[in-house]
Structure formats: structure tokens, C-alpha cells
């Protein structure tokens, strides 16, 4: 039920299926945040939100991607 960050991109394959999601998490006002990668098995779409079943600490251990 908490906001962990902001989705910045979806990567899709040639068939249009989502292969990964990139999100900026942590930090304050854009300072100190990390961009992480999630696979489709790690999130689900509910209405207008992306929902992950992990804590903020677990989210910090996700693979990092370059901004």
C-alpha cells in the first residue's frame, strides 16, 4: 500500500509483450534515487497502478539500470 517510486519505461518484445519495467525508486525529489529493472513476474497492473509484492528494502536489491 505504499508508493515505492515512479515507472519510467516499459520494454516490449517484437510482439508487443512487456519484457521489463524500469522504475526510479528511493531518494527525495529526484536526488539519490536508483533506476531498477523488474520482470513481468515481479509486478502486476491494477487499474492505473503497477503493484509489486515486496518491501522498500527488497526493491533496493533489484538489478540497477543506467539512467
Key terms for this structure?
two-stranded antiparallel ribbon, 67 residues, single chain, mainly beta, three-stranded antiparallel β-sheet, 6% helix
Q: What does this 3D model show about the protein?
A:
The protein has one helix spanning 56-59; strands at residues 5-12, 18-25, 34-38, 44-46, 49-51. By secondary structure, it is mainly beta. The chain has one helix and five strands. The longest helix has 4 residues, at 56-59. The protein has a three-stranded antiparallel sheet with strand order 1-2-3, with no helix packed on it. The model has no long low-confidence stretch (mean pLDDT 89). It starts with a strand and ends in an 8-residue tail after the last helix.
Tally of separate helices: 1
The first-to-last residue Cα distance is 26 Å
Main β-sheet description: 3 strands, antiparallel
Q: Give the quaternary arrangement of the chains.
A: single chain
Structural class, by secondary structure, is mainly beta
- N-to-C order of helices and strands: EEEEEH
Cα-atom radius of gyration: 12 Å
The mean pLDDT is 89
Give the uncertain stretches in residue-range form: none
Strand order of the largest sheet: 1-2-3
**Which strand-content bin applies to the residues?**
35-45%
Question: How many strand units?
Answer: 5
Helicity level, as a percent range? under 10%
Shape: globular
Amino acid at each position: 500500500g505504499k508508493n515505492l517510486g515512479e515507472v519510467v519505461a516499459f520494454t516490449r518484445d517484437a510482439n508487443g509483450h512487456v519484457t521489463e519495467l524500469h522504475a526510479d525508486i528511493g531518494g527525495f525529489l529526484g536526488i539519490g534515487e536508483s533506476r531498477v529493472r523488474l520482470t513481468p513476474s515481479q509486478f502486476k497492473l491494477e487499474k492505473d497502478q503497477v503493484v509489486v509484492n515486496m518491501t522498500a528494502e527488497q526493491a533496493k536489491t533489484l538489478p540497477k539500470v543506467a539512467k
